[in-house]
Amino acid sequence: MRRMASLKDRIAVLEKTIHISPVRLIFEDGSRQELRGRRNFMLGLLRAAQRDEDQLSDEQREQLQLIRNAVGSEESGGARLVEAVQVMLAAKDLVAEAKASECEKASELLQ
User: Fold this and answer.
1) pLDDT exceeds 90 at position 87
2) pLDDT for the residue 97
């Protein structure tokens, strides 16, 4: 009976690790931080990068900020989803800046 429970415990641990695909972020100072999530969690972050801040969970906000600050990454299978998320975040920032600039110009015209 004990051997069976031990085997089930081992299988449970293996099942948990199979679905985790770590992404290592590299920062300017050379430090590294690992992001972990269930399979395809980076696709979820890519979708989250398109949403407004108030629609994100605290965990997503934190992960996206880490990705924004990273200068490189190591992803399993040579994936480049971190770069895709960074591009999405940069585009969102540019759109926000353009909107702010347009509002500023409109405000100046009204004065």
Assistant:
1) yes
2) 86
Q: What is the pTM of this model?
A: 0.73
d(CA 32, CA 1) in angstroms, rounded, equals 43
Rounded to 10 degrees, what is the CA torsion of 9, 11, 14, 18? -140
Q: Which residues contact 93 (CB under 8 A, 6 or more apart)?
A: none
Residue 22 has pLDDT above 70, yes or no: yes
Contact yes or no for 50/88 (Cβ under 8 A): yes
Q: Are 85 and 46 in contact (CB under 8 A)?
A: yes
Q: How far is Cα 46 from Cα 20, in angstroms, rounded to an integer?
A: 17
Amino acid at 47: R
Question: Whose CA is closest to 49, among 91, 80, 108?
Answer: 91
- What is the longest distance spanned by two Cα atoms in the chain? 82
